[in-house]
Design goal:
This protein has about 80 residues and is α+β, with helices and mostly antiparallel strands. It is built from 4 helices and 5 strands.
Length: about 80
């Protein structure tokens, strides 16, 4: 079992833009990064990643979270596996 403080620390240390950028082609758009959502099919980008909040959000399908949740959702990883990665 992974304790809450360790999870919080890993989440804060991980760079959501870098993690998501391994799976999604991101382009800088002001303070955000935008790309096509990996969770549903779309033609125009509605998927954003915020380096300030260290989170992602899709305005099309509502997917959102941090880098740990992204790894769980996009890669089908279990929570402990995503934290380790």
């Amino acid at each position: 079992m992974i304790d809450e403080n360790s999870i919080r620390e890993v989440s804060q240390r991980s760079n959501c833009v870098t993690v998501v950028g391994r799976f999604v082609e991101l382009k800088k758009a002001g303070t955000l990064f935008k790309g096509l959502c990996p969770f549903h099919e779309e033609r125009t980008p509605s998927f954003t990643v915020s380096p300030l909040r260290n989170t992602y959000h899709c305005f099309g399908c509502g997917a959102h979270g941090d880098s740990i949740r992204f790894l769980m959702e996009v890669g089908g990883r279990q929570f402990p596996e995503a934290v380790r990665e």
